[in-house]
Fold this sequence. Notes:
Number of helices: 13
Shape: globular
Region (Disordered): 1-31
InterPro entries: GH
Organism: Tetradesmus obliquus (Green alga)
Strand content: 15-25%
CATH class of the domain at 30-308 and 384-395: Alpha Beta
Largest sheet: 8 strands, parallel, barrel
CATH architecture of the domain at 30-308 and 384-395: Alpha-Beta Barrel
Protein name: Glycoside hydrolase family 5 domain-containing protein
Low-confidence stretches: 1-30
Radius of gyration: 20 Å
Distance between the termini: 32 Å
Structural class: alpha/beta
Helix content: 25-40%
Amino acid sequence: MARQSAVASIDSAVQASKQPEAQKGAEPANNTGSVQFSSSVILFDVGDVTATVRQNGRVANWCALTANNIKQFGSDKINFVLTQYWMPTSNSTPFDIDYFCYKERGGGPCRKFTKEAIKRFEERMTECFAIAMSQGFKTIMVTPHIDNAVDAYQWRNYAKLNPGLAQGGFSYWDIQLAPLAAAIHANLGKGAQRFLFNLGGELGTSFFGWSGKWLQFVGDARQAALGKDKAKHAAELQVGLKINFERVPGYASQLPGGVKRELAQQLFGALDYVAISAYAPVPAKPDPSHFQDSVAIADGELQQLGISLAGRDIWYGEFGIGGGTSQYCDRLAKTPAEAGFTPMYGTCWQYNPAMNPWKSPAIRSYMQAYYAAALQWLQQGAPGGKWRVKGVFAWNLVSWDVQGVHPLSYAGDGASFKDDKVSVMIAQHNKAASR
């Protein structure tokens, strides 16, 4: 994230927060009770969903192993992040989509979707959600991601994605939303109190450039997930979108039709909640109040489009600190100030001691202070004035995975990015948390 962009967003949000509540029509947040710190199962390949893996001497289904690792921290909420891919039209046009594709475990080419591959994805996610419920999780967030198949560093927030347009024979609806809705439907009434269905994650250009289609998909996804049992299971499903904490509309203003303000307002009005990738800068001395900044910044940008998050249910769908300073995952923070300014950056590959940001005592100490302050904020009920933050889901992967729940966070000898002190803090916090 650009420094200028983040600072400008913070200034805008601070000014917006000073407006009288009566002018905004906001309802009080009324957060009561301490909030759980929850975690995520992150899957990048279709084969990840049910493949067998070995970790610390244990051999288990990949999905079951990761969910079980999360369960030991005591939250009854879990987030599944499922990634598919777009093939760009060329290397010089990374955000123009030629077709959609998927990957199997172990690398190899990104394969064009077939009906059989989509059905396999649906069946595996149906199994994965059932595994989570069998382990006692009551709230299941579902977060589809889509990444550039050639260059993973090209951020999805700028993808020119028309979610209803078939490209290479299938649309985003076909490859992500339809199979995930079917997997949710197959698990309704079987133990989960609610599914939180994010229709997309960090797709600002798409959300605001094709708002009308996303608005249609809010209803379509709800219908597909509930099926004929709409009245019976309606309380078990909520539909939302996950936005980034800043640059919320992506490049939508540069599209031929620009941002569709009225349709965007209708879209956000139709959502049951809004999820946020919560990576706002945090100073070298973290304070609990710093952790409401992500929703403040996002709200400040949205207010410029006539949309307010005041009084809305908010989930932090991604959260954590990676200890890096580069989007290319090749530079570690040298000071706490650097680490706190770009918590969204870290190490992107399996554990390697040379690229472990926490090997520095100063950076590890800062990371521990970061989580201590965040947990204090959650213990206080995630106070945020007009904003109602309902919960937080960590980004549990490589250097962000200080809980050590993802197999890729470990080396073959068992060394990992896990921090025992933070892990204990999280487990103790969740033991006392009331919601």
